[in-house]
Every structure is written in structure tokens, then in C-alpha cells.
Write a structure and sequence with these properties.
Blueprint: H1 2-17, E1 22-26, E2 28-29, E3 35-36, E4 41-44, E5 49-56, E6 65-74, E7 77-87, E8 94-101, E9 105-112, E10 118-128, H2 131-139, E11 147-154, E12 160-164, E13 166-168, E14 175-181, E15 190-197, E16 207-215, E17 222-228, E18 233-240, E19 246-255
Parallel strand pairs: 4-10, 13-19
Antiparallel strand pairs: 1-5, 2-3, 5-8, 6-7, 6-9, 9-10, 11-12, 11-14, 14-17, 15-16, 15-18, 18-19
Amino acid sequence: MKKYYLILFVILISAAAGFGQSIYVAESVTESGEAIGAKNVWDIDPWGRSLYIVYDNGGPINDDILYLFIDKFIDGKFQPFDSKVIEIKKPASRIKYDYKFKDTGKFKVYIVNENEETLSSLMLTLRTKTGESNKAEKSDNYYDGISMIFCEKVLVGGSPLGIVRSVSLSRNSGSVYIKISHYAPLNTKTILVDVWRKGSNSYDYDEYVESKKYKIDPTWRDTFFKYKFYKPGKYKIIIYNEYDAIIKTGYITVTN
């Protein structure tokens, strides 16, 4: 009997692991509600652009109502921007909402159930469609293959020393060098670094820490900077070029 319950428990755990909740922003959807052409960075016209916000529950949605929230990054933090109530037509495992974005900037899009639990979230960047933003969109693929490493030191000549995946507040004073390297010139006069921390009760890196901006030579193929952490946790580092195209994203753990 114990063996039977053990097998049943393993089956239930395996089945639960198959369900994954995700949210997408896409330009269109299939008949079954799957997102087509989803991405996290969009160029929009000055008069706005309609995009589909698609939530995939990874299984049947049991709630009668879900809430769509959109927060905008203003003055160093995400602030409430808009919200919608979505009635669920069962049976359903996905929902879509045709939303017209009119503002540019950085946004957090997330779905909340009736128990006020966040089911999934997405960081979204919207830019005004101009000649420069088109150039930035083309440059997204330009950075394919770039590397980001965390290390204890960078020697003269640019060689990293002591590559790490975590940093200690007590042993390393929370300091680490972050280096990016490419096979071609970085093609940007500045790099913008966003630092995010994973919340204590969250699956997402939704706690904004700060942003840093550094001037570099566009002809350089690599660059590095020193960063100091002040709080333990799991962090995500996002580096952008001068047109807000993502150069590279990296992750590091900070311990006491």
C-alpha cells in the first residue's frame, strides 16, 4: 500500500510540473489562442499600437475572473498604470486581451487571480517608432553570441581573474566585476545597466534595485565595470545599448 501511494505521489508531482504559467505580448494569436511573434520589446507609432496580451495557464483555468494589471516604471519604481477585469469563458487554458498601448517606457504586465495571487508577469519595453528605434531593433540580433561573466578582478589587458557565479557580502564586500565580450564592436556610445532582485515570495525578478550608465568607445569589443551589492539574494543584470536594445542578461547570487 505504501508503494502504491508513493507511485501515485510521483505521478501527481510529475503532472503538476507539466503546468507552466506564462504571459506574452504578441502581434497576433492562433485560433487556439497561442501567441504569434511574441517579444518583450516593441516599437509603437506615436498614436499607439494594438497588441495582444496572452496568458497561458498551462492547464484549465478554474477562476471565473482574472485581473490584468499594467504598471509603468516612473521615478525609479513601478507604479500602477492600468488594469482590466477579464471574465473567463470556460473551458479555457488561455486568455487573450487586445490592448492598445499609447505610452512608451518600461512596463510590468501581470495576471492576478481572485485570491490576489500573481500568476505570471512580464517586463515590457515600448519605444517610439523612429529611425533610431528601427536601428535598435535591427541591433537586437547583432548581439547574439555576446558573453557576460562575473569575476573577482580584471587584469591589465582585460583578462578576467576568478570567474564566479556568486558573491559574498562578508568575504567580497559584495563587489564583483562584470565583463561583456563580443566578436564585433559593441556599436554603442553608452551602456545602461538595470539591476533587478528576485522578491522573497516571488518567482520573478520584480524588485527594482537601480540603474547605472557608462560611457564606452563604440569600437570596443568588450568592456567591464565594477558593481557592489548591499543585500543578499538572487539578481538579474540587464545591459542595454544606447537605443535600449538588450545587449545581454546575466544572473548572480549574493550571499551573506
